[in-house]
Amino acid sequence: MNETDILRRHFTLLAGALIAGRAPLDGASALTVQDVTRRIQTSLGGEWPPAGPDGFKAGDPTTPVKGIAATAMATMDVLKQASKAGTNLVITYEPTFFGRHDGPAPAPASGVAVDDPVYKAKKEFIEKAGLVIFRLRDHWRVRKENDMATGLAESLGWTKYRVAPDDVLYDIPAATAEDTVALIRERLNLRGGLRAVGDRKARVRRVLLHPGVMAPATMWQRYSETDLIVAGEVREWENTHYAADIYTAGEKRGLVTIGRVASEDPGMRACAAWLGTLVKEVPARWITAGDLYWRAV
Amino acid sequence: MTGREVVELIKKNVGVPWNEQSYRDTFKLGNPDSTVKGIATTVMVTFDVLKRANQAGLNMVISHEDTFWNDRDETKDLTANPLYQMKTQYVLKNDMIVWRIHDHMHAMHPDYTVVGSLRSVGVKGGEDAVMRARVYTIPETTLGEFASQVKRLTGSRAFRCVGDPKVKVSRIL
Predict the structure, then answer these.
(1) Cross-chain Cβ contact A245/B48 below 8 Å
(2) Rounded to an integer, what distance in angstroms lies between the CA atom of residue A245 and that of residue B48?
């Protein structure tokens, strides 16, 4: 095959891809996982140091990509769903291997043990199923668009209530804290993860959405603007303590924590939609990690 | 007896050398030289706990966790905060004293936070427990049953569970 033939072959494949929208490519020409992650890196920009939290966590980056799944956390359950759906690239916001080191790490770092049975089983499943895991948190979070907050608002059905230009404040139809919490639980399909502090009967209209962890300084600065703060998680001796003291002081402002992962899940649905605009060759879908908790009866 | 004298007595009796470098185990509010009328211990000195202690005539509150919603009880960003002012004024107005014991409680033998947790969820043993992972054996039950027991004994509405409720449970970490 001479050079012209190769070019023609490539052109044909490219034309095929354009016509079919999604081309099942084989061999050396197939789109690899690495091709996809390079597109992500180029599009989001910034530095991608090998030791940073974002990047490959498991699997072979040269694997031809069959489908992309975005999720808040690559739990074993999410991985199984991804594999079943024929999706082999999993983009996860939170770690895969149970901590910031995302796997075994030498002391004094507190990574999972090399021979930890849960770690080993997960790693083995990933290898057997031919999955590749790529973490995307920092670079997704620093985008101009705050998709983590607006994605959560969308899941709650509150997009139209946004108090622009702020993308975290929403003026929802007034209701009691109790009823608002029930609505949040239902719309996010929560089981046992949600916890609420404050007066049940307080009137809620202005809500602040804060997916992920809320630090004390953020709460100190912004609580007086809101009737209810909806966060992913907080430390009990920080913001739960503060919310309890607000309640004792007689202020009608509440705090609801819906769980770290549950709060970040909708933002990763937005990420899946964004990936769909970036990669046309294979499908990109959202796989929800869901509410991980249940409550005692 | 003053607040300071109470603390001196505690320091002599914890059974471990006192670490003066601990930023946690210090006076947080009030005048340490005020006379102590009664002592309240609590896991976290919320505004509600302060009020209840005061109503019970207990003016010294010993808390395991922080007073001002951050571990170091740093207050430089809080001076204009209305809640900070309210909580502080309540303590001063009622001549109360707040002192924290965290690090030394975890250094004690046993660590009463661990022994207390075991008792509160109905696990026997561990009289000498310290803050180190250790497996306790309980009569075999299911995870769901054990969770119900914890709810019944502690009255907690907040705790969350992960795992199959039907799985058998006998060893607890």
Answers:
(1) yes
(2) 7
